Amino acid sequence: MHLNQGTVPEDYRAYLNRKVRWILLGLILAFVFFVLAISVGAVAIPPLDVVQSLLRLSSSDTWDRIVWNVRLPQAIAAVVAGTGLAIAGVAMQSILRNPIASPFTLGISSAGAFGAAVSVVVLGAGTMQSTVASPVAISNPYLTTAVAFIFCMIATGIILAISHIKGASPEVMVLTGVALSSLFSAGVMFLQYFSNDAQLAAVIFWTFGDVGRATWDMLPLMVIVVGAGTLYFIANRWNYNAIDAGDETARGLGVNVTRVRLAGMTVAAVISAVIVALLGVIGFVGLVCPHMMRRLVGDDQRYLIPGSAIAGAVLLLASDTVARIIVAPYILPVAVLTAFLGAPVFIYLLFRGYKR
Question: Where are the alpha helices (DSSP H) in 280-325?
Answer without folding.
Answer: 285-297, 301-325
